[in-house]
Please model this.
Amino acid sequence: MMSGSPSPPDSPFRAHARWQAHWCTALGSPFTAQLCTLVADRLDPATPLARRLDSWPGNPQDDALMLRITGGLHALVRAGKAPALAALYPPNPAPDPDTLRAALAPVLAGKAILPWLDSAPQTNEVARSGVLVPGFLSIAAETGLPLALLELGCSAGLNLVPDRYAYRLGTLDAGNHDSCLRIEPIWEGADPPAAPLRIASRAGVDLNPLDLLDPDARNRLLAYVWPDQPQRLERMARAIAITAEDPPEIVKGDAADFVETRVRTCKGVTTTVFHSIAFQYFPPETQGRITAHMEEAGARATPSAPLAWLRFEMEPGADGTDHSGAPTLRLKLWPTGEDRLLARAHPHGRLVEWLA
Model:
């Protein structure tokens, strides 16, 4: 059940849920923000769910704890297991807080939501390819070589097949013009380079990769998309269908192990390591091992066997720990090792400010 009066605001989880509500509002999801606020302020501390959340052993924000809950709720609604709550979900009219709270309470008190706390969200936002592809085009233009793509934290691999989607990047048309999925971010700045996007190979790594041939995995992926963003849901469904026709290689494992095993320069291709809104979730030791190996591999790069590291990530704060700044696209390209800021972008790829 959910309490009729606000719970004491002394739980790190509840502070995190209010923070998540703020970001949902800022990112155009008022319904999801309302869910977060109700959970933060009205979840009964005596429920099994609240006991786990309020005593969470890790950092709720680093573990994206509130997004685990919103993903679980959306999954139950999509599966027809929470009909009263489903009647209030988009595209239905926005409910008042008391009505939503009443429908939400029994779902949060039940057992079906609890397993969703056991693994981190995997949104795999395919619109981020609209940010990454300009970076890939920059790499292709500078090296004149096809790319060997290696993605860290790739989830289901939707961003490992960027050449299968169509793009409008400023005034530049790129990608597969016949694709049923067109990615067209709001664009500010000059066009990216008009280089051919040639992919020589592709592979990724994830702690818990999702198999797009498994209906449960597809449903899980869709559940993490916020329900009041129907365009994202439609885009995700199309990307799933495209990628499932020929899924890329995805290794289940640690990102640092993958980098140390797979990242090596090769003559005739640009070895291209990339990730999007993922690096901040890696443990510090993993981050350090990845950085060290990239520097070592970069030292062996040559013009005919270059190495690229493309990162679309949240900018750390002044102390280097708070990833609350605007996401940026950065490229480090060896053999020179120059590290450049290419763009700033919306976290979900809705807008790109091209700076290169």
